[in-house]
Amino acid sequence: MATGPDGKPRLIERPPRRSILQRLRGNFLAGIVLVAPVGLTVYLAWTVITFIDQSIVPWVPARYNPGTYLGSDVPGFGVIVFLAFTALIGWLTKNFFGRQIVRAGEGMVARMPIIRSIYNALKQISETILSQSATSFKHACLIEYPRKDLWAIAFVSTDTKGEIPARAGTPQMVSVFLPTTPNPTSGFLLFVPKADVVYLDMTVEEAAKLVISAGLVSPPSTAEVEAGFAVRRPELVD
User: What is the rounded (10 degree) CA torsion for 159, 160, 166, 172?
Assistant: First the structure.
């Protein structure tokens, strides 16, 4: 029994105990949060490995296939063959003879109307995805968008150069990418004065998670981490 502000004793009301079904439901939801990402990752990885094996292994001569001697197919063998073949092709294209073959092949594709469009589109997508990290975003920031006093997360791309700053009458500008929620791969390219950009301590990965989750997954601030109230994952720190 405790006393109130007036010094008189008062009873402490304890929260009602949860039923067995409520506790089971809470445990189940907590387990789903951990099991679902792992299970989905394993399922997708196994699906990709199986698809590659089914597509590559039939082309491998039987004497080079370990499944011939073991009596059953070896999971992942097709993936190994695919990686080795891709690395070999990459090595061949680095020398003069290989580049000539690539140019001849692309010349043949360029004369095929429909195939040419598909090939060019796939090549552009591959080059964009496999581009070097030097072209990736370096900082997350806040900008006022779509109007004053409303803030949106954006990613700083580079300093704006050329004609745009001169035409805008603002010498110091930055190019930022404003992603959409929950799909951060689409968005808007904005040219913003440097004075209007608020740089964030969170990494680009943390900011992307915040955008994808529609604000549900918010990383801790630097002050919270330094005070010991939260821990920032090491792999997300530059």
Answer: -30
Q: Is 144 exposed, middle or buried (0-12, 13-18, 19+ CB in 10 A)?
A: middle
What is the pTM assigned to this prediction? 0.48
Q: How many CB atoms are located within 10 Å of the residue 207 CB?
A: 22
CB atoms within 10 A of CB 212: 15
| Measured distance CA(146)–CA(188) in Å, rounded | 12
Count other C-beta atoms under 10 Å from residue 219's C-beta: 21
| Tens-place pLDDT, residues 19-75 | 788 888 888 888 888 888 888 889 999 999 999 999 998 898 888 888 888 888 888
> Would you state the torsion angle of the CA atoms of residues 79, 80, 85, 88, taken in this order, to the nearest 10 degrees?
140
